[in-house]
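Here is one such protein, fold included:

. . .
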Amino acid sequence: MSIMGTRVVRREDPLFLSRGATYTDDLTDERLTGALHLTLVRSPLAHARITSIDVEEARSAPGVVAVVTGAEIDLAPALLFPGANKSMVRSWLPTDKVRFVGEPVVAVLTEEAYQGQDAADLVEIDYDPLPAVVDLKAAATDEVLLFEEAGTNTSNGFGLKDEFDEHLFDDCEVVVTREIVNQRLAAASLETRAASAVWGADGRLTLWCSTQNAQASRDEVAGWLGVDAAQVHVITPDVGGGFGAKIGADPEFALVSWLAKHTGRPVRWNETRSENMTGMVQGRAQLQTVTIGGSRDGRVTAYRLDVLADAGAYPRLGAVLPMFTRMMAPGVYDIEKVESRARVLVTTTTSTAAYRGAGRPEATAAIERAMDMFAAEIGMDPAEVRRRNLLQAEQFPLVTKGGAPYDSGEYEKALDAVLEASGYADLRAEQKRRRDNGEVVQLGIGVSVFVEITGGGAFSEDASVEVHPDGSVTVLTGTSPHGQGHATAWAMLASEHLGIGIDRITVKHGDTDLIPRGAGTMGSRSLQTGGIAVYQAAGELVELAKQRAADLLEANVDDLEVADGSVNVRGTDKGITLAALAEKERLQIDSNFDSGAPTFPFGAHVAVVEVDVESGKAVVDRIITVDDAGPVLNPLLCEGQRHGGIAQGISQALLEEVVYDADGNPLTATFADYAFPSAAELPSFTLLEMATPTHVNPLGVKGIGEAGTIGATPAVQSAVVDAVSHLGVRHIDMPTSPLRVWEAINAASAEGTK
């Protein structure tokens, strides 16, 4: 019986739940014996000139081995995103200017970790404050420049040279436009950032770090240090979550490495939670202007999306993500005319990068809110408006007005499934009853239909499968799990071909000497690239084993089959184990799979919320979802990914927001101020099954890691707005906190009395 599609329990969990994970800060490698501990003195101001730095008192503090300023570092400032304005570089430790609260300014190295903060407190830095720039519209005026030499706060843009068509909406009976905030979020991963570094006698650097991609981290750190990549060995221990914020390397990784060479001793660094909340890259942070037009019969004919995106102080991966927002702008809809552009700006805040969905949730949030506002304007049910505009299954494959090559989709089927499972008509009837009775707790129903791109530009992945003489199997993969369950899933894929139990299969990742090529784990790419590479390698290994066994068994290759870890002659008891073949000669295959194209998973969500109109508090009562990612390898893992994504989607809609005051001070630097839900605040999720295969890989699979995040957010936001729409409310920006809901109700009431 095939192992594919079965609910195999995660092999990772017993170790995590018993001994616990081994994170970077837990390492006991003998090469780190006597390591120094790094504490960073960080800027308390968002924007200021540095007038003086005095470290003498700190250097004499107990346990201090070195105190290093930027003047001592011989590395050139780095452009962290190649496509950004070339003047927007980041110094490893600035000597002239700081651009966000939490920017590292001085490095303190001590014998013991506890000595670091005491010494850091003795560093005296004088600053000449400059105006902060937190608001994107203010940044766009260039009145206060972060980089005077750039002459602008615009880092880069997409479609900026294309003029919008002033006649785009001329033929529309109805046009609705609104400014929408897709708020800044913190990844808030279980494990904060960490790195440990040591230089060997051979001149090579070994760097342990918490990252989603060891190979990219190796290449980035090598480039920043000005050494060949072959001189850098990156090892990724267990990683306690990333959600996109740990894609590639952080500048601190290069700093730790440089300090290890400078002092001639290993160096360890692990940040506090507050440092993480102010220093680790954050996500989303778009100000969107949506305009939607069409006819009163519900047909949408024109859509425009204009984006201001926040890069933070130093452009990083976040600067490229609006490209995906533009690409996915039309979503699941067949809209005749679509325009979009995006301008990326620097502000005196923490840099932005990927956050679960990375550019695609922002596109979905925009078009789904636009659809709701259009439906409200013409007085039509929002589900019906969506149905009338969906791309149809027979249109696939196709290239959208956003330029995305959609592979497959059955959007109407997904919408019908969630509407039926939710009892949509009954929900609307209950909503009417509560409204008619003027009840305090009102019902809101939100609908979203979404499509996303998975695999991004990382279509290729490497894998190796080897059977050992003892019958065990080693799988090497270029993907880099941080909670996804690859050790289970990749073992299943190898087992399917080899017939060897997954308890005998070990999956290894995250070591650049062992696995020199790899694209890591992000963008929901793993199964459709890395998993397929493993599946392909195991299949090729079977063919190699059959070729070798044919001579030994004196049989035709076509008469051989592999089952239960043996090569057998069909219809006979004649055979040889794979282990025996490996004993005679190494039995191993290296393989590369390149799909050449991304996939486009899709789905539909219905969210049911209750809103107390007196307090403004919204509670999610139910959420019903279809998250179609093609055939499912392991339902248990798939459901776990869906659950996590939906939870984060709900959290953005209701709770999460990184907030800065007008002076650029972060107001959400601890978990006391940054809200996200526990299991107690969430309902059980209704997960409907649907599987539409893709043609771009042999298993027909697509990515699942981000789907829930993309679909749940607009569904819940729309549900909250829907609950109070009868009071005149048309939109509430996320997070739809009790205060925001209460203010929207009162503003609508005040408007209605004029």
